[in-house]
Amino acid sequence: MLNRVILIGRLTRDPELRYTASGVAMTTFTLAVDRNYVNQQGERGTDFIRITVWRKLAETCANHLNKGRLVAVEGRLQTRSYETPDGQKRQATDVVADDVRFLDWPKDGKGPSGVGSGPAMGADSFNQDFSDMGTEVDMGEDDLPF
């Protein structure tokens, strides 16, 4: 059996950090993820997905992410049932993240940060100078691969 989810999107609000009664950190945020098709009006739909992060990664996300930041989240789907105060039964589906990657530059200009269980993606994590890499590629018609 396999339960893996990979999402890339932007935070719709600042993350909320809380602690359980036993002191375990938990952060939640909502990720806006664009659909890969457009409707008849030419508009792209968006899904708003609740993300839950635990322990040290939760604290790191709460301290370094904010509304609008672009992140990649890897984790698993988890459904839960609950009852509203007026007695209605509801179900909710969250992504429980075990890896969160920061994909853009923070507004303070200090560079991107990679967070999670995999290798970091931050600029200071690379032992390489990328300053000599150009952003433009000049390809003539003869250079095209098709």
TrEMBL record:
GO CC, alphabetical: nucleoid
Domain of life: Bacteria
GO molecular function: single-stranded DNA binding
InterPro entries the record matches: NA-bd_OB-fold, Primosome_PriB/ssb, ssDNA-bd
Name under which the protein is recorded: Single-stranded DNA-binding protein
Gene that this polypeptide is encoded by: ssbA
Motif Important for interaction with partner proteins, residue numbers: 141-146
Function (record text): Plays an important role in DNA replication, recombination and repair. Binds to ssDNA and to an array of partner proteins to recruit them to their sites of action during DNA metabolism.
This protein's UniProt keywords: DNA damage, DNA recombination, DNA repair, DNA replication, DNA-binding
Gene Ontology process terms (BP): DNA recombination; DNA repair; DNA replication
Pfam families, sorted: SSB
Subunit and interaction comment: Homotetramer.
Disordered as annotated region, ranges: 104-146
